[in-house]
Amino acid sequence: MADDVTARPASAAAETAPIRDGARAVDQAPARSTARAGAGRRRRAGSVSTGTRKRLEIAFFVTPALVLFVLFVVVPVVQAVRYSTFRWNGLGPMDDFVGLKNYANALRDQIFTDAVMNNLTIVVLSIVIQLPLGLAIALLLNRDMWGRSAMRVIIFVPYVLAEVVAGVVWLMLLQPGGMVDAVLESVGLGDLTQLWLGDPEIALYTVMVVLTWKYLGLAVILFLAGLQGVPTDLYEAAQLDGASWWQVQRRITIPLLGPTIRTWAFLSMIGSLQLFDMVWILTKGGPANSTMTMATYLINQGTNRGLYGYASAVAVLLFGISLVLAAFYQFFVLRRDNQDAPKPRKVVAR
Amino acid sequence: MSAPVVTPAPGRPVTLDAPRRRGGNAAGVRNPLVYAAALVVIAATLGPVVYAVLGGFRSNAQLAADPVSLPDPWVTTNFMNVLTSVSFWRFAFNSTVIALVTTVIVAVFGVMAAYPLARYRFKGRETLTTVFTLGLLFPLTVAIIPLFLMLRDLNLTNTFWGVALPQAAFALPMTIVILRPFLMALPQELEEAAMLDGTSRVGFFWRIVLPLSAPGLVTVGVLAFVASWNSYLLPLLILSDPATQTLPLGVATFSSEHAQDTAGVLAFTSLAMIPALVFFLAMEKRIVNGLQGAVKG
Predict the structure, then answer these.
(1) Closest Cα partner for A20 from B114, B172, B296, B175?
(2) Does residue A260 belong to any structural domain of this protein?
(3) Three-class SS of residue A97?
């Protein structure tokens, strides 16, 4: 959901859920036998009219959500697939059926394939940069130290700000002669000043820095939650054995944090693939398309140039790429977590 | 659903004001390097925000002369200009209305749908649940083009509904995924007792389920509100009339229209931050718990 990247964690978080939730529902089925027995009793005692009444009740409760969901989620998604097979400018009849030509054109357009590469670069760099930084800060904040709860609030502030607000502030910081340049000059690194967002060679990396600033807080908060799940008696046992603080972190904490880290990396990946807001504010995909992402390309082609059929094909490609990567990740990385659900001790025993 | 993050782990009481040696975590308390690292993190995190606020108190001449410095003298005209402009308050009002409408729709429709999915047994229950959860796979970006065209045909562009309804629809899957296990966890005995007392299942919903699910509803509502408050892509396409635009759109427009007026942009942006920051500080635990709960499932 690129309408705002803040919604992203929520929606992205959820992307893992269908699979996990499905598994959970199956697991719980036998455990709910009491509930089923209760329902059975009612059904036997009831008459036809209670059955009708029950159906009416279900309809009453579910219909509003279902109508809203079908109208604004299911229909547009299906329409996107349909539009993607037409050449259509959004006006007049949609009668120029082109089959898969829009897809072929997109895959042949170097701006689009470069955008895909940019997205993949952002996926990898986000994880490579934010994982060690986030872990270090989470471990730092997990210690008994003065001002710890204040710091936990502070670290999360960038994440809560709207992408647009954060992006505009960074635009001001990064403009030529802005604060970033001034700070570099004041510490004698004036030669390093750049056209941070104007040079195609470095614009993507500048955007990466801003993204790190914006989303590091989420990693820290999630890691901190994971750290709370580490049983304290493990620490005590390690101490009795004379382990140093570093040894404890490396041998106990970080391995036990595995499931949390893997889930966070999944969220981060999905978010990076759908990145729109921050890029749109900072560079609009420029200069020379060097920061173009799939989502900014989509909006460029769709609402800005009126190529609705073509943009829909790009949307379907975006979804397909996300889905394939998500499936791979689920299969190769998260599968371990799904098999033996968070039983930290088991991991240690292995 | 999830442990509040600020609550310390069991066996590690909060000792913020009077840190003292305790167990293995006490080593950090005395280590100046730890505090130095913490200061660097704080500076990097808050630096841009502080720069924006202080920059708003300076003039463009001051900013040009020395980008990094305290305001001298403190200038309030930038802030006064924004605060006395009609458009700023209109943006804030529009954002508030859209976020509130989105939140109410999500919470009401979400808990209503989650109730039968959690506590009725009927054919197709799992199928229906799967339909909603599959919605999680589809980001707004994928549907944005048809959505834009559909809202245009429904004459919903430049209306609050045009933004609130799709936002609520896309927030529903997450809401139902969070609320359904929540409602499932209510003990069966409660329902049986209510039935014995002659309450119908609808009555059970109003008198018992709704009050008991309040914490879950607040979490879901806060997440929906923040997402709506910060959203950009959908309003960008739907709200072209400045009279209906939200704060993020206002900030973006102002910053491109007044590109030369850095101080003015910083003042406008700082003021636009305040509602989100206040809301975050008030609801911090809910937001954090919601996100953590979403990950832990």
Answers:
(1) B296
(2) yes
(3) strand
Asked whether the beta carbons of residue B24 and residue A238 sit closer than 8 angstroms, the reply is: yes
Both tokens of A154, joined, read 């502070």
Quick check: B14 contacting A, CB < 8 Å? yes
Smallest Cα–Cα separation from B54: which of B78, B72, B73, B70? B70
Question: Is the residue at A249 inside a domain?
Answer: yes
Confidence of residue A32 (pLDDT cuts 50, 70, 90): very low
Taking the CA of residue B163 and the nearest CA in chain A, the distance in Å comes to 11
Interface-testing mutation among B1, B54, B144, with chain A (most A C-beta atoms within 10 A): B144
Percent of chain A with pLDDT over 70: 82
Residues B136, A8 contacting (CB under 8 angstroms):
no
| Per-residue model confidence as pLDDT tens digits over A75-86 | 999 999 999 999
SS3 of A86, please?
A: strand
Residues 52-81 of A with CB under 8 A from B: 54-55, 57-58, 60-62, 64-66, 68-69, 71-77, 79-80
- Whether A38 is in a domain gets the answer no
CATH code, domain with A279: 1.10.3720.10
Three-class SS state of A257: coil
List the domain range (segments joined by +) for residue A121.
115-340
Structural domain count of chain A? 1
Contact present, A11 and B170 (Cβ < 8 Å): yes
Question: Looking at residue A230, what is its pLDDT?
Answer: 80
Instruction: Kindly give the confidence (pLDDT) of every residue in chain B, 297 residues in length, as a single tens digit, with 9 standing for 90 and above.
Output: 333 333 333 334 433 333 333 444 444 456 788 888 889 999 999 999 999 999 889 888 888 877 777 888 888 888 988 898 889 999 999 999 999 999 999 999 999 999 999 988 888 888 999 888 888 888 888 899 999 999 998 999 999 999 999 999 999 998 998 888 888 888 888 888 888 888 888 888 888 888 888 888 888 888 889 889 999 999 999 999 989 999 999 999 999 888 888 889 999 999 998 888 888 888 877 777 777 766 654
- Whether A145 has its CB under 8 Å from any CB of chain B: the answer is yes
What is the C-alpha to C-alpha distance for residues A82 and B200, in angstroms, rounded to an integer? Answer: 45
Residues A236-267 pLDDT 10s: 888 888 888 788 888 888 888 888 898 899 88
b vs e for B15-47, b when ≥16 Cβ sit within 10 Å of the residue's Cβ? beeebeeeebbbebbeeeebbeebeebeeebee
Task: Using alpha carbons only, give the angle A318, A215, A218 rounded to the nearest 5 degrees.
Answer: 110
- Name the residue of chain A whose CA is nearest to B196's CA: A42
Give the count of Cβ contacts less than 8 A between chain A and B. Answer: 402
Q: Cβ–Cβ of B248/A4 closer than 8 Å?
A: yes
The greatest distance separating any two alpha carbons of chain A, rounded to the nearest whole angstrom, comes to: 86
The pLDDT assigned to B101 comes to 96
Q: A265-275 burial, b if ≥16 CB within 10 A, otherwise e?
A: bbbbbbbbbbb
Task: Tell me what pLDDT residue B17 has.
Answer: 38
Angle at B99 between CA B93 and CA B101, to 5 degrees: 100
pTM of the model: 0.80
Look at residue A192 and tell me if it is in a domain.
yes
The minimal CB distance from A169 to the residues B9, B52, B117 is found for B52
Q: What is the pLDDT of residue B189?
A: 85
Answer whether A324's CB lies under 8 Å from A9's CB.
no
Inter-residue contact A319 to A333 (CB < 8 Å):
no
